[in-house]
């Protein structure tokens, strides 16, 4: 990959808005390799926009509470009509990760995945297996540790699926700065 000087004019790909080029020659040279990823990112982004707009516009009924993004937080997967949105959001984040070694893209994907976990605490898409690797790629070791501890530590009264926002907050605040060993059976 060609390095850019600080004075190089950089512009984003018009399709995906994720990959940056120092000029049209560079973009033309990369087009064949980038096309599939670009198309996937653009398509999933458009589909996600449609899915979210549909959920926001829909009035509440017996299948979907009004304002599902605010009134369904934590139980999104339990609301059948929100599952397509969750799958599409996962696909959008996954498509971003196909862009090679870009920190901004990894952060954007992580933001999508963390928001999915906020909406669906039961983690039906197994994001707890993906998020730790992204945190490490971003050199966020303490958040990595906090995340692993949150998803591997339970007690008799509280299971992972029943964590309330307060329980999550308590776990993150009370985590010691020095990591303690995790039991192999919990990993």
Automatic annotation (TrEMBL):
- Which Pfam family is an annotated match for this chain, by its short name? zf-MYND
Task: Give all residue intervals belonging to the MYND-type domain.
Answer: 10-38
Task: Spell out the molecular function terms from Gene Ontology.
Answer: zinc ion binding
SUPFAM superfamilies this protein is in? HIT/MYND zinc finger-like
Which keywords, in A-to-Z order, does the entry hold?
Metal-binding, Zinc, Zinc-finger
Coiled-coil stretches noted in the UniProt entry, renumbered to this chain: none
Q: What is this protein called?
A: MYND-type domain-containing protein
Q: What is the source species?
A: Lasiosphaeris hirsuta
